[in-house]
Design brief:
Elements lengths: L5 H7 L1 H12 L7 E6 L21 H13 L3 E7 L10 H19 L3
Parallel strand pairs: 1-2
Helix pairs in contact: 2-3, 3-4
Length: 114
């Protein structure tokens, strides 16, 4: 399994990290891949509605870049979003922000020619 520590991702940048990850996933060995997004990868300051909070996690823009790049791959078969805990989002702001973030990230995939 290919994995990157967050500090290494930031050194490489999201585009290069995703290029490397997709090179493995798109390398012809797989029929496709599934995207599993745990919302707790987001920085604690922007996503308090998770059970495991992560100071210094991904920013919203970084998440949009990662998801948009992943779903643009023709081998991406689907995606699930987990770990969001609505009981920790009393105002609904975190959930609303997450939905807007995912809409931004998924927009390019709707424009992709199948």
């Amino acid at each position: 399994m290919l994995q990157f520590e967050l500090n290494h991702v930031r050194e490489l940048g999201i585009p290069e990290t995703m290029r490397r990850a997709l090179a493995v996933l798109d390398g012809g060995q797989l029929d496709g891949f599934w995207i599993h997004l745990d919302v707790d990868v987001l920085d604690d300051a922007v996503m308090p509605a998770v059970d495991y909070r992560m100071p210094g996690g991904l920013s919203l823009q970084e998440l949009v870049e990662v998801v948009a790049t992943a779903v643009a791959s023709p081998r991406a078969l689907g995606m699930e979003v987990t770990i969001f805990n609505p009981t920790l989002d009393a105002t609904g702001q975190a959930g609303t922000m997450l939905v807007h973030c995912l809409v931004d990230a998924l927009r390019p995939s709707r424009m992709r020619a199948e």
